Amino acid sequence: MRSFLVKIIEGLHQKDKNLFMYLNQRIKCRPLDAIMPRITHLGGATFSVLLCAFLYIFGKEEARIAASEAFFALTGSQGIVQIFKKSIYRKRPYMVLPNVNTFWRKLLKDHSFPSGHTVAGFCLAVVFSLYFPAYRYAIYSLATLVGFSRIYTGMHYPSDVLSGAFLGTTFALLTHAIKKLIVS
């Protein structure tokens, strides 16, 4: 039974690497090379925190409520991300795979699983979509692009990104549900 599970896990990891190589190398082109390193920052700490602060300070009541909820979701989810990264020692793709396209001179040294940028992108997307549903398609598209950019720039495997999207979505929904319980 154990060898059967090992084979399944190895097979999934191989598919993950193959999909990573396809997205990181085979679809490489100049327009994506120009935009993906910029898109990826939409899931970074600086952008996420500044967006919440800006909306909280300058937004109307609903924007302020959404911003504070998003901030709490981000804070909690990023704590979980750090716990996973410190307990699941998965090296980033550019550290173990040959010829990975990366876009920075200074590369990250922490672990790959899950993608914190994707977690942040989906935390923001879910919370802001709950408060501003008219913009949900644009917001979710941006979050998805952040996740894709993490693969394209060589920082994460597809499973890191999918796990990040799941974690960000779950944490945002949980935060929203807790806020509703407290307010009511």
TrEMBL record:
User: Entry's Gene3D superfamilies?
Assistant: Phosphatidic acid phosphatase type 2/haloperoxidase
Q: Which SMART domains match?
A: acidPPc
Q: Which GO terms describe its molecular function?
A: acid phosphatase activity; undecaprenyl-diphosphatase activity
Domain Phosphatidic acid phosphatase type 2/haloperoxidase, chain residue ranges per copy: 65-176
Q: Where are the transmembrane segments?
A: 39-59, 113-131, 160-178
Q: Which GO terms describe its cellular component?
A: outer membrane-bounded periplasmic space; plasma membrane
Main location as per UniProt: membrane
Supply the InterPro entries for this chain: Acid_Pase_classA_bac, PAP2/HPO, PAP2/HPO_sf
Key words, A-Z: Cell membrane, Hydrolase, Membrane, Transmembrane, Transmembrane helix
Q: Sorted alphabetically, which SUPFAM superfamilies does this protein's record hold?
A: Acid phosphatase/Vanadium-dependent haloperoxidase (SSF48317)
Q: Quote the subcellular location field of this record.
A: Cell membrane
Annotated PANTHER family: DECAPRENYLPHOSPHORYL-5-PHOSPHORIBOSE PHOSPHATASE RV3807C-RELATED, SPHINGOSINE-1-PHOSPHATE PHOSPHOHYDROLASE
Descriptive protein name: Undecaprenyl-diphosphatase BcrC
Organism this protein belongs to: Fervidicola ferrireducens
Q: What is the lineage of its organism?
A: Bacteria, Bacillati, Bacillota, Clostridia, Thermosediminibacterales
Gene name of the encoded protein = bcrC
